[in-house]
């Protein structure tokens, strides 16, 4: 368990939701404290049991912890400068998705959708165990294919840092204030849920 408090900024929801949904938060501060092996297993088990089209389970993860040394550094090297804070996390992941079904190698138009669902399951499991996670799209999209021998028919979606909460006092105060104020803003349900017909 981290010596730093969980970054509590619960969503101001209009309905009673699962605690993990309300508390899910993408932090800017991570602790390098090791994650217990059983918790890492639980994160991937949450992905494993996510629904997917034809039960294809197209998600693939390249991951490393700080204990893996060079492999962790290789993953960290993919991040843009703006996303460098993820390097403080104990675990880094490259989330990928196989583009085609195993059946006749037909295109799977759901591969990114299904992988996103699996990543969200991991997020909620992380929150439930007192961990935090943050995913970013800012990373080198070409280098991983050679570095990790990834087949070209695989999409590279996001990179993710997972770990225990870190020391937010080390984050730029103005950036932190802006994040806490802006990140809890969402569209109204009526802006995206249309009963019967599309509403402009």
Could you describe the 3D structure shown?
Strands 1, 2, 3, 4 and 5 form a five-stranded antiparallel beta sheet that branches. This protein has one domain: NADH Oxidase. With 200 residues, the protein is an alpha+beta fold. The protein is 28% helix and 17% strand. The longest helix has 18 residues, at 111-128.
Alpha-carbon distance between the termini?
Answer: 47 Å
- Class per helix and strand makeup: alpha+beta
What best-fitting shape do the alpha-carbon axes yield?
globular
Continuous helix count? 6
- What share of residues are in beta strands? 15-25%
Q: Indicate the mean pLDDT.
A: 93
Task: State the CATH superfamily name.
Answer: NADH Oxidase
- Poorly predicted regions: none
Helical content band? 25-40%
Task: Give a quick set of tags describing it.
5 strands, 17% strand, 200 residues, globular, 28% helix, single chain, alpha+beta, NADH Oxidase, 6 helices, 5-stranded antiparallel β-sheet
Could you provide a short overview of the structure?
The chain is of the alpha+beta class and 200 residues long.
Helix-strand layout with pairing:
Layout: H1 19-23, E1 30-31, H2 37-48, E2 59-65, H3 70-76, E3 91-98, H4 111-128, E4 132-136, H5 143-147, E5 154-165, H6 173-182
Antiparallel strand pairs: 1-5, 2-3, 3-5, 4-5
Helix pairs in contact: 2-4
């Amino acid at each position: 368990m981290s010596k730093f408090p969980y970054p509590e900024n619960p969503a101001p929801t209009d309905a009673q939701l699962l605690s993990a949904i309300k508390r899910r938060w993408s932090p800017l501060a991570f602790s390098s404290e090791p994650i217990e092996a059983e918790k890492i297993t639980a994160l991937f088990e949450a992905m494993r049991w996510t629904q997917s089209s034809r039960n294809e389970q197209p998600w693939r993860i390249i991951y490393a912890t700080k204990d893996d040394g060079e492999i962790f550094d290789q993953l960290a090297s993919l991040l843009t400068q703006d996303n460098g804070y993820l390097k403080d996390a104990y675990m880094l992941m490259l989330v990928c998705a196989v583009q085609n079904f195993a059946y006749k190698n037909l295109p799977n138009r759901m591969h990114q959708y299904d992988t996103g669902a699996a990543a969200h399951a991991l997020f909620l499991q992380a929150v439930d165990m007192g961990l935090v996670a943050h995913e970013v799209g800012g990373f080198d999209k070409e280098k991983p294919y050679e570095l990790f021998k990834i087949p070209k028919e695989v999409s590279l979606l996001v990179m993710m840092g997972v770990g225990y909460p870190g020391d937010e006092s080390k984050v730029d105060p103005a950036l932190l204030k802006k994040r806490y104020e802006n990140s809890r803003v969402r569209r109204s349900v009526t802006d995206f849920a249309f009963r019967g017909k599309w509403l402009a």
